Amino acid sequence: MGPIVPPLVPPYETVGDGPHRVMAVHGWFSDRAAYAAMLPHVDRRAFTYVLPDLRGYGEARDVPGRFTTSEAGRDLLALADHLGWDRFSLIGHSMGGAVVQRVVAAAPHRVRRLVGVAPVPASGVPMEGEQWELFASAAERPENRRAIIDLTTGNRHPAAWLDLMVRHSVRHSDAKAFRAWLDSWALEDFHEEISGAEVPVRVVVGAHDPALTADVMRQTWLRWYADAELIELPCAGHYPADETPLELVRAVEDFIAADA
């Protein structure tokens, strides 16, 4: 396993200056730009959003590490300490959904509200055979990244959008880190560490996502959290921030704003 790498204060972007502090964590295919289409529409007076780059991505593309969700959870707590944030809400997309749950497992008292967007469950995402090979080879094969994005958004979107997503993914991630991340978010099961947690949770999924579906969330997230609810966006797949940004902003902010 090797030694534990010390926590890192990851590079980040800040949007807004409101009193409710929110950390938004990206997924496997993007850096913090995963939320770019949402940002013009967020309530900057009510919320302060901080968007970090996980190790291996964006401005942290060349930062070494083990590239695990548990390591990233420690990094996010180091970032919160750096910002002087005692309590804050969390948003996690896809792989980022597993990362933010590591924060809940480590420091549940610091999390106000948690939103998972097409989120990976704390039990991982079991894959085998051709499906595993498709994902495992995506680090070195851009065509695999394209196939995964197309599949998980319901084979509905223009070729130019798929190409744009792939180009950004390749340019803003380190291939070795990208591959290492897969073993963590897909294979690790830490659901017993968050089971019964009382932090209010909203899970947002896209109706056109064939993998991380509403049924999957009912069998995982909604079973393990004491106060959890589910919203399905009818016009989205696995990337609601890009596909339906206005609907996602409402789904996020209506929920986190309910914490007085």
From TrEMBL:
**SUPFAM superfamilies, per database record:** alpha/beta-Hydrolases
Recorded hits in InterPro entries, A to Z, give: AB_hydrolase_1, AB_hydrolase_fold, Carboxylesterase_BioH
Keyword tags: Hydrolase
Name a Pfam family for this protein: Abhydrolase_1
Q: Name one GO molecular function term.
A: hydrolase activity
Indicate yes or no for the key word Nucleotide-binding: no
Q: Which residues form the AB hydrolase-1 domain?
A: 22-240
**What protein does this entry describe?**
Alpha/beta hydrolase
Q: Which organism is it from?
A: Streptomyces coffeae
